[in-house]
Design a protein that fits this description.
mainly alpha
């Protein structure tokens, strides 16, 4: 069934309990301006179930996300994860029927692999991705948390205010960043160990064997490039290398990735229909009704004055009012007899119908047990 944008606009207004400005435009992502109260929705090419879930989610931001700037020291992706969980919880609490709407919408998104996890081990994802999956499609995917991760999940689940959601996002970000740094330190130690084993011996041979064959011709830096890519200057092997600079053991400020958030954003962008005609939304300007609305008495007086004061030759081909009134009176006088005859015939038929309805029984016995039904029988 095709999605009716007008109906979805009314749905958004009813859920928000205010006269929001809802615009369906050829944009890639939905966005809500908490200051101007304008909800902008893409022309998603999807089912009504997913559409309702997406609209309800955006209305949740309209109702519960304050008009404040988020902190800059926390990536906004992490704040979005915790804030999405908070506003959807509050929306389900405000409208209990939305629980089924979100369930069906996310069920369809999970079936269509909008989070791109079909070929991945969910347990291998970082905590941010697993939290995002848990609060969106946790009913359809088995997600487990370690004892050290459970307090953070509970912190996100219990968030009631935006400040609490930001605090939960900060805890989530710090945990993921620490886990990322520990993982990279382990991989860095393994790479250094491998490079030391491959260092050439003073005699020109390999330090791992007694062979006289020189195996160090292809070694240009302490970091071995196992992917076959050209090693960048200073030991940086490609744009995905988490190390930068001449010292390969110095980690860059590592930012944990949120793969499921990026995957969902990409899929929703693909749903947007950008081939349709662009809708143009305009606002009616505020006007002074005292200046644009003229009283009918003033208008008629003005027309009469203009007619009487203007020369007759300015209205060539027009019939004067006196002539029209004279012909109307003549028509009324000629039709008076025929009209009176029709009225008399109508009155006779009406009297006959009323007489036929009122009948009186001349014989028989009066049934007093039915007297109470005289008003309706």
């Amino acid at each position: 069934m095709a999605v009716k944008h007008e109906i979805k606009s009314q749905l958004a207004k009813l859920l928000a309990t205010e006269d929001l400005m809802v615009e369906h435009k050829n944009v890639e992502t939905a966005q809500f301006n908490v200051h101007t109260r304008v909800l902008q929705l893409p022309n998603w090419n999807t089912s009504n179930r997913v559409y309702d879930a997406l609209v309800s989610h955006e209305v949740g931001h309209a109702l519960f996300t304050p008009d404040v700037d988020p902190p800059n020291d926390i990536p906004h992706t992490f704040i979005n994860i915790t804030e999405d969980a908070r506003i959807e919880k509050l929306m389900k609490r405000k409208y209990m029927g939305l629980a089924k709407t979100f369930y069906r919408g996310y069920n369809e998104l999970a079936d269509n692999d909008f989070f791109e996890i079909d070929d991945k081990d969910v347990d291998s994802l970082n905590l941010a991705d697993r939290v995002n999956l848990y609060f969106k499609i946790g009913s359809f995917v088995n997600i487990s948390f370690s004892p050290t991760e459970t307090p953070i999940v509970k912190l996100i689940k219990d968030a009631e205010t935006f400040e609490e959601a930001v605090s939960a996002a900060e805890a989530l970000y710090n945990f993921c960043k620490q886990a990322e740094e520990e993982s990279d330190n382990e991989s860095s130690g393994q790479n250094q160990q491998v490079s030391i084993e491959q260092q050439p011996s003073p005699s020109g041979g390999s330090s791992t064997g007694d062979s006289d064959t020189d195996s160090t011709d292809d070694i240009d830096s302490p970091i071995s490039n196992t992917d076959g890519d050209d090693t960048l200057e200073g030991g940086n092997s490609g744009s995905n290398n988490p190390f930068r600079g001449s010292d390969s053991s110095t980690p860059l400020d590592l930012e944990p990735e949120t793969q499921t958030v990026n995957a969902l954003d990409k899929k929703l962008r693909e749903l947007a229909q950008n081939s349709s005609l662009e809708s143009v939304y305009v606002e009616i300007p505020k006007v002074n009704l005292d200046k644009i609305i003229v009283d009918n008495k003033i208008l008629h007086e003005r027309i009469k004055t203009e007619w009487e004061d203007s020369p007759k030759n300015d209205f060539e081909g027009c019939v004067s009012f006196e002539e029209v009134d004279s012909k109307y009176r003549e028509f009324k006088r000629n039709a008076q007899k025929e009209v009176n005859s029709l009225v008399k015939e109508f009155e006779c038929k009406k009297s006959a119908d009323a007489y036929a309805r009122a009948t009186t029984s001349k014989t028989g016995v009066l049934n007093t047990s039915l007297l109470h039904t005289y008003k309706f029988n």
